[in-house]
Specification:
It comes from Azotobacter beijerinckii. The chain has 202 residues and is an alpha+beta fold. Helices cover 33% and strands 31% of the residues. A hairpin with a 2-residue loop joins strand 4 (38-49) and strand 5.
Length: 202
């Protein structure tokens, strides 16, 4: 079962807050996410103390708007070369993390059941890469979504026995590719439902 990806969510990165001088007690203002130089979303931030940041924003889920206002703890850890590095403590599970991801509450990727896109791609692409390898060996330049294995013609000079074996193998691989594609289409909705239930208990 595949998961939604972190790249699908807006992330609040404590390292970015630190770099921009935001993590100073008494600081108050907005934090924005931009898309093509236009503001796509924003939240209100108030640094109540060195160890706590308050988040204020409006979230709309299932057509219902809700005003959110809650604190997030910040923990400072010493660095090997001196100085300190800040970490968020996830409001839901208490994990020490660099990023929190936007949902009803900002939470860590574990609570939201998120993967990194590269992790998902590595798993999904194995079957697809294998399908393409087999298809190229058969002289086919079309993928499994465009040309079923049974419609591929035997290359000139290839023995029928070899061709039959490769087609049989390709059918098994293509079945996996189609299963992965269907799972990917369903994964985001499934993960959102699970995350909503988990966050509603926070």
């Amino acid at each position: 079962m595949s998961k939604a990806a972190t790249e699908d969510y807006r992330a609040l990165d404590v390292r970015a807050l630190h770099r921009t001088g935001t993590l100073v007690p008494g600081w108050r203002g907005g934090w924005q996410w931009k898309r093509q130089d236009a503001v796509a979303a924003s939240i209100g931030l108030e640094v109540e103390s060195r160890d706590r940041v308050r988040l204020r924003y409006q979230v709309t889920l299932n057509g219902q708007a809700e005003q959110m206002d809650y604190p997030v703890s910040v923990e400072w850890m010493p660095c090997h070369l001196g100085g300190e590095r800040p970490w968020f403590l996830c409001p839901c599970c208490g994990r020490r993390v660099a990023r929190l991801y936007a949902h009803r509450l900002f939470a860590c990727r574990h609570c939201l059941r998120l993967n990194y896109a590269s992790q998902q791609a590595n798993k999904r692409d194995r079957a697809l890469d294998r399908s393409w390898d087999l298809r190229r060996a058969l002289g086919c330049d079309k993928g499994p979504l465009f040309l079923p294995a049974e419609l591929i013609r035997k290359p000139k000079g290839m023995h029928w026995r070899t061709f039959g074996r490769k087609i049989k193998q390709l059918k098994r691989v293509d079945a996996r590719v189609l299963e992965d594609a269907a799972a990917q289409l369903e994964s985001i909705e499934r993960s959102m439902n699970i995350a909503w239930k988990a966050l509603s208990r926070c």
